[in-house]
Amino acid sequence: MLRVVESRMVERSKIQSQLTEDLASPDDIPRLRQLKDTESLQTAWDEWKTNKKLLEELAPFLRDTDETMRTLAEEDHQRISGSLTRLLSETFPSLLAPRSSTADLPGALLELKSGVGGTESSLFLATLLRMYERFATLNNWKLNTVSNNINEAGGIKDAIVEIKGEGAYDTLRWESGVHRVQRVPVTESGGRVHTSTVAAIVSYTGLFLGDMELRRLQVLPLLDEKDVQNEQLYTMDEIKLEVMRARGAGGQHVNKTESAVRLTHIPTGITVSMQDERSQHQNRRRAFQVLSARLMDQKITREIAERRATRNSLVKSADRSEKIRTYNYAQERVTDHRIGLSIMNLSSVLEGDALRDITDALNQDYAQKVMEDMLTEDGA
What we know:
The chain is of the alpha+beta class and 380 residues long. The protein is built from eleven helices and twelve strands. The strands form two sheets. The protein has a nine-stranded mixed beta sheet, with helices on both faces. A three-stranded antiparallel beta sheet has the order 7-8-9, covered by helices on one side. Helix 4 crosses helix 11 (355-378). It is flat, with a radius of gyration of 26 Å. It holds the Pfam family PCRF.
């Protein structure tokens, strides 16, 4: 890894020597941008060299006959060594990792659906939805409810929310996977702990893991209409469009006009139904947006698998049968199984605050694995 960093710094030095202080021509713009992009790496490299020099200067004091001097030197040695380890294991990988191909997506579409579990399933789904609403607020993202289906017990059978903001998709993509919760349901009179799961799946169909209670949680890239046009995710020849009367609790509008819309993408079998909006035009627009998001998520997952065929960490996170996280109410603990991280503050996670600790750690783990791939490919 250090050879890669040093190579980048040599390249940066060459660019600096070639450029003048004033912008000479439009041809210099890419190189100036490259200098800007490597500023943080240069700072980290300078810190590395400084600390390495300090360690060399401390070496004689570690053998000092004076116990006080030797103790102070050992303390300094431990502190500086810790800084070097952090630079090597965290800072350099994050700075060397290529920019995410999904970094510019305008947001994410978060879909939650309850499955087996009845009332307890829908009540916990409502808890998860509130967690992501809080998380969006803490990150200054804009959250808009596209649709939800509230049951009589106050839980939510299914919901779709769109979350817009910088970095929303790149952060929320780590939520894809199977979430497991262990707690005493409010409907349990005997005080027994029940285990339920939440699964993140790309497809629209339900998934059953034995007799475990299951819901699905889906994080999809949110696309604007112009993005869909650029991506060419589908053609209208591949779409089956059906309109029908909306179903609901009643009222003047319900069941009098064919405002509900159902789309089927024939090649993949993906189906999207939408009836929450007042007009067929609005429901149609929403349905196409959800369909585009699902197709984009499939595309991104496929590209990741192709690019990193020798490593399966991210593929596992997209494998909807893989358990990624456990929420244990009795022990106030949340554990992310992909990186072995446990947070002994379940309440803070569900409030959205400590969820950032988990997503940051997953981002760091991803950066390290990308760096390992780069080193393998370069033979470093």
